[in-house]
Design a protein that fits this description.
187 residues; 4-stranded mixed β-sheet; two-stranded antiparallel sheet; 7 helices; 35% helix; globular; Bacteriophage tail assembly protein
Length: 187
C-alpha cells in the first residue's frame, strides 16, 4: 500500500541539481572523476538543471560547445525523475546505435552506482522484460531510449519529459515522418 501511495505523493521541492548533489554517483567507467556528483565543478550546469526543474518552463534549448556536460545534465534529469517525480521519459539520441551506447555506457552505470536508483529499475538479468536496453520500467513511469533516425521509436508514445541529446547530429528527417524533434523540447 505504501508503494502505491508513494506514486501519488507530490514531488518534493527539490531541483535536479539539488538531487544530483545529494544523490548522484559518477561511475568510474563513465567519468574521469568518479564519486559524488558536485554541480559546483561546472556551475553553469546549475541554471540548466533548474530550468528543467521549473514546472513553468516548457522548453529548454542549450547551444554550447562540445564536451561541456550536456549529457550529464540529461543523466541527472533522468535520475531525478526516476527517483523523485516518476513519469514517462524519452531520451532521443542521433541514432539507434547511439541510444544503445548511452543506455549501456552512461545510464546503466549511473543507475547501478546511484544508491537511490538501484532498486527502482529492474535487474537487467531478470526475464520479466522490465529492463531492456532501450526501455526501462520503474514505479510510476518508464524510460524509453530511441534514435532520431527511427521514426517508429518516436511515434505514439505518451511522454511527459523529452530529452534530446546531440541534436546537431540528428538526421534532417526521420524517414517519411519529417523532422524528428519539432515541436518537442530540446536539451
Amino acid at each position: 500500500m505504501e508503494k502505491a501511495l508513494a506514486v501519488l505523493r507530490p514531488p518534493p521541492d527539490l531541483t535536479i541539481s539539488d538531487w544530483a548533489d545529494a544523490n548522484r554517483r559518477l561511475s568510474s567507467e563513465a567519468s574521469a572523476e568518479p564519486g559524488q556528483w558536485r554541480t559546483s565543478r561546472a556551475e553553469y550546469q546549475r541554471g540548466i538543471m533548474e530550468a528543467i526543474s521549473d514546472a513553468g518552463v516548457e522548453s529548454v534549448v542549450i547551444m554550447s560547445s562540445a564536451q561541456v556536460g550536456k549529457t550529464e545534465v540529461v543523466n541527472n534529469a533522468v535520475g531525478y525523475h526516476i527517483d523523485q517525480d516518476p513519469a514517462p521519459i524519452m531520451v532521443v539520441m542521433p541514432t539507434e546505435r547511439d541510444a544503445e551506447t548511452w543506455s549501456k555506457d552512461r545510464f546503466s552505470p549511473m543507475a547501478r552506482d546511484t544508491p537511490c536508483l538501484q532498486n527502482k529499475i529492474a535487474n537487467p538479468k531478470s526475464r520479466d522484460g522490465n529492463n531492456k536496453i532501450l526501455h526501462k520500467r520503474f514505479p510510476g513511469g518508464h524510460l524509453t531510449i530511441v534514435g532520431a533516425n527511427a521514426p517508429s521509436g518516436l511515434a505514439s508514445r505518451p511522454i511527459r519529459l523529452l530529452l534530446c541529446d546531440e541534436v546537431d547530429r540528428y538526421p534532417f528527417s526521420a524517414g517519411a515522418e519529417g523532422d524528428p524533434i519539432v515541436p518537442h523540447c530540446v536539451v
